[in-house]
Amino acid sequence: MSSVWPVRLAEGRVGLRPLRSRDRGRWMELRRNNLEWLKQWEATVPEVSGEAPPSFFSMVRRLHREARDRQSMPLVITYDDEVVGQLTVGGMAWGSLRSCFIGYWIDHDHAGRDITPTAVAMIVDYLFERAHLHRVEINIRPENTASRRVVEKLGFRVEGLRERYLHIDGDWRDHLTYVLTAEEVPDGILRRWMEHRSSTT
Fold it and tell me: What is the pTM of this model?
């Protein structure tokens, strides 16, 4: 993946770039401010190990190691060059599968401005056109209507329900699997999304 990492993308005021160690202050501030809003949607570890959670710097090192190993792309979402969220491409599989999944979160105060769908559209086009992946999936709890709106705006199709798929907020939660394959969007989705936005504003 050396030819496609690191990733830097921009569309208007929205950008994507690698998560960096110097993002710690802003990242920690966002996580504190959005703790209650995000905890109902984010994966947790069911076992209590007694170990302290990894530090921010350890997390960044691990994510960048995974990026170098062609397993993930850890990115921040920016708006006017300020970090407002995170988007991670994970589970990158090559060979005959060429698939991945995407997870994301955004600051509550920046939600509803079409920042997240723009970021997702940018990375999906990049994954299909530059990384030559074939399939992208996004797994979302059925109750998470805001996140479901993101993928529905972009034309992802529902492939099915994964029962008790991820441990979140104290229990195993069902998830809807949304999917796009490269053949479904031969011209990409960013341009289509921007045209749709222009026609509705």
Answer: 0.93
